[in-house]
Specification:
about 30% helix, 12 strands, alpha/beta, two-stranded antiparallel ribbon, Alkaline Phosphatase, subunit A, eight-stranded mixed sheet
Amino acid sequence: MTKEFGRRRVLRAMMGGTAITVGLPLLDCFLNTNGTALADEAPLPLNYVSWFQGLAFAPGFWEPKIVGPGYDMNFCLRALAPMKDKINIFSGMKAYLDGHAAGGHNGGPQCILQGGVDDLSLAAPTIDQIVADAVGTKTRFRSLEVSCDGSAESFSRRNASTNNPSEPSPLALYARIFGPDFKDPNAADFKPDPQVMARRSVLSVVRDQRETLAKQLGVSDRARLDEYFTSLRDLEQRLDLELQKPAPLAACKVPGKFDEQATPGLLIGDAMANHRLFTGLLVHALACGQTQVASVNFAGSLSNLRRPGMQQTFHMYTHEENLDPEKGYQLNVEWFSNQVAESLFEFARAFANFREGDGTLLDRSLIMYATDLGYARTHSRENIPLMTIGNAGGRLKSGVHVSAKGDSVTRVGLTVMQAMGVSIGTWGTESNQTSKTITEVLA
């Protein structure tokens, strides 16, 4: 391959009177000699994804028996076995309630993703948003949130009062990412949108007027005005990005269009089908540099997903189904859990199969699996299953089972955030506060 094919080279054609642009894959000539960075030695951007599934797995059937590298993949997680060397499993950890009445399924997600437990809503951002503050400030989308079961339920929060609603429609997400506002990072030509320029200009004028007005106000009004314009400054920064040419990412490819499920969320097969569509969209969005942070809600804590031919939901089975006397677990619950594990495997495999030079998209990504409970049948928050998938650009080891009985789940979150480059030494509240990372997996 000659050097005349630069990172901005694209393929162009006409189809039905419409111009088609396709970005080239991340060829070796775009990278350094090791395939670990761009040719100018700029590091490949890191990506982070929170992947949430409610209702966990059957205790005693998901934890590996072997601690450390080379662990065994237990019954509930057998679908993930082909990617075992890319997965870290954390067992024995719990969410401390500290006397708060965070009943039902709320305390676990709060503790795992926000660092503590509160009776109503914890005044803290979730991990994905903390990471977005560190790596998502120069992308078109600060973060993307999706829900596979047809709901808008989200486990992504900016603070106690601001929830980031999930997109339940793959078609709507496709239009949002790859619609008219999509800018191919590898396109040779770049023309700022005049409408964006006008909006940016108007905000600049408003900013100047604000400074003049502030001098005429009292202390309380100035504080209120400053709070209001903080949001406008954020918008102004986003508009600035719209006026800049995107950094080339030659692996960027626009996915083809598709048909989504007409009735998502009723049967688990519907949710799995939409999850496959969301997987393809998010993989391409990350590869194209449209975002570096995403949050996936496969099915919430009170999952209404049903098995074909059955009336009871996944959630109902966890509380009402008896243990099988021979196998020792709830058979229908285990069937649902197997479908979830298969979907998580498909998600991770899509990252691993997306080639970039000598590596893959998974090599520069970190996926964190989270759930709500250790045992859904009793609402136990002991031994909550947690996993990480991927190496975060070499910052994490993988293929390790860590047993940390009695430790707070916040140790995993702290480790993940440090691996993603967040400058943080202590995280969590009350008994869940920790400054102890999991050194067994930090590279």
